[in-house]
Amino acid sequence: MGAAPTILLRDDAALRVFDTGQGRLPVVFQHGLGGDAAQVAQNFPDQPSYRRLTVECRAQGASGAGSKRPFSIAMFADDVLAAADAAGLDRFVAGGISMGAAIALHLASRHPDRVLGMVLVRPAWAFAAAPQNMRPYTEVAELIRRLPLDEARDAFASSATAARFRTEAPDNLASLLGFFAREDATVFAEVMQGIASDGPGVTRAQAAGLAIPTLVIGSGIDLVHPLATARELAETIPNTAFAEVTPKAADKDRHFAEIRAAIGGFLDRNFNNQDLS
Length: 277
Hints:
By secondary structure, this protein is of the alpha/beta class. Helices cover about 45% and strands about 20% of the residues.
């Protein structure tokens, strides 16, 4: 992931910030719910012409949770913007995976003077808060907060939700089961409940008014990040390129390679030969 992280203090939360260097094109790129900077490094095509900034959001990665509640996409987006300010990034491409895509969409809508373009990878939200596909996160969070972790995991593993995911989206199920093994499971349950019941805070009309180059990437065999959600965003936001990649559940290496190739091609086509001032 390049250079060691720096620490950004926000309220009483110490957040880890990764800055890949001094490439010409600044890209602020965020992880998904429960992810970290390592997840971003799997998906993003780091190269000398890009400068990538990634914040490990509160209670994720090695960042602190702080005492401010509730956790929300707007809170995380404000933290990301503060990190961009601290790094001296006036204008940048905003992107991310799942929750990170929602953060990027929020930033583009709220700060159009700052965001040059968007990269939305496997989005879990379109425009509504608390979409049905995020309900499993709430289910996991409620079990963690109500039962001892071993009992909570067993209860979820034997649930109807897990049975469906086992058949239709095994990669999603592995991620959900992993939340029960987190050292900070109780605090992270608060994050899951807050984020799963939230949304980007962007209406369809607002998204249709975004006049910036955008890439949306979706894949199948994924109940948390429906391909239909990716297509809905791509069809709503003007000047959007859409890429469907190999599902992670089918071939992880190919999945990540195709995402990196799609992002690199999009950035080079739209930004690397332009005046970014």
